[in-house]
Write a structure and sequence with these properties.
about 75% helix, transmembrane, mainly alpha, about 325 residues, 13 helices, cell membrane, transmembrane helix
Length: about 325
């Protein structure tokens, strides 16, 4: 394994903010999230919303969290497969630590803070971010493709239909297609550089990362990535369907899955941290189109976001210091060898 020779980390993986700052940002976003949903709940009457939340049992909330864990674990396994495909000799425990620990940085705009995973890999293996950047591209592309497939199935099998889903589906598929085709992505990077005429070093690194995607273009790697991603997001879609049924909303399985996936994608397109605001608005609006009243759609949206997005952030914050400590120890061992 080649030892890192640079002592200054690239800008893309600069030292992360302090844990206190991360916690304050996460708490602030959670507060805004709860305030927004609370305002909607107030419009319907607190009593109705609280009465709907009281319907849930501890076991039901536990099942929602377990289904979210299934999603995180399957995608962590996919991350591990990506690292091995790239040639990194990381262990499953390392990949799990990196992947879940990175959720702590979901609160950053566009989730760029999750690039901290590349910093941890650099410390533990000596691989520079230019060589590991394809991991991030493939992870995002695999999520887009898997969610687009689920959304397509939902649109097909939903008994009511999901108006407006087709543009988002096509956009997600197009982005995933470009990100997984090295020549096409490299061409897009080149065109962007010629148009802007700036940041040659950054665009050079992007072209280098695009060429490295060839390792992931085999049918076996792509099939495994799509299967794991689709199964993971399907678990959370099923959780949303179960939650709706427990709250008394009569929404079909594939309609519920489609609403969940569409809202998650729509929130991500806003670029806001964790899709905050956009995902919730889309979810409530789509539920209303299915005849679900606000006194059910608002608490349902609050619960599913708490048990998916905020549960992931909580796990990330718990694992973040462990990943930092382990990576620093590994970096010290590399230097001594």
């Amino acid at each position: 394994m080649t030892q890192a020779t640079s002592t200054t980390p690239p800008a893309a993986t600069a030292a992360p903010p302090s844990r206190l700052r991360d916690g304050v940002i996460a708490a602030g976003l959670l507060g805004l999230f709860l305030l927004g949903l609370g305002t909607l709940a107030a419009a319907t009457g607190w009593h109705e919303s609280l009465a709907q939340l009281a319907v849930l049992t501890v076991a039901q909330v536990g099942l929602l969290l377990m289904l979210s864990l299934v999603n995180y674990l399957l995608r962590a396994v996919r991350w591990h497969l990506f690292t091995r495909t790239l040639g990194l000799r990381t262990t499953m425990s390392q990949s799990l630590r990196h992947f879940v620990g990175g959720f702590a940085m979901t609160v950053t705009p566009g989730r760029v803070g999750e690039l901290i995973r590349l910093r941890w890999i650099r410390r533990e293996t000596g691989w520079e971010p230019e060589r590991t950047a394809p991991l991030v591209l493939m992870d995002r592309a695999a999520d887009l493709a898997a969610m687009a497939i689920l959304l397509g199935i939902a649109v097909t099998f939903s008994t009511i239909g999901l108006t407006g889903a087709l543009p988002v589906l096509l956009l997600a598929l197009a982005a995933a297609y470009v990100a997984t085709h090295p020549r096409l992505l490299a061409w897009c990077v080149t065109r962007a550089y010629r148009t802007l005429g700036r940041w040659p070093r950054t665009f050079g690194r992007l072209r280098q990362s695009a060429r490295a995607l060839r390792a992931f273009s085999s049918p076996g790697a792509l099939t495994a990535a799509l299967t794991l991603g689709a199964a993971g997001w399907l678990a959370e879609g099923v959780a949303f369907f179960l939650l709706l049924s427990w709250m008394g909303a009569d929404v079909g399985l594939w309609t519920a899955i489609g609403i969940f996936v569409f809202s998650t994608l729509a929130g991500g397109l806003t670029g806001a941290p964790g899709g905050m605001g956009g995902a919730e608005a889309a979810m409530i609006a789509l539920l209303q189109l299915q005849g679900v009243p606000l006194e059910i759609s608002v608490p349902t949206t609050a619960v599913i976001r708490l048990t998916t997005l905020w549960f992931a952030i909580l796990l990330g914050l718990l694992l973040f210091p462990v990943a930092e400590r382990q990576s620093k120890r590994a970096a010290h061992d590399l230097e001594n060898h």
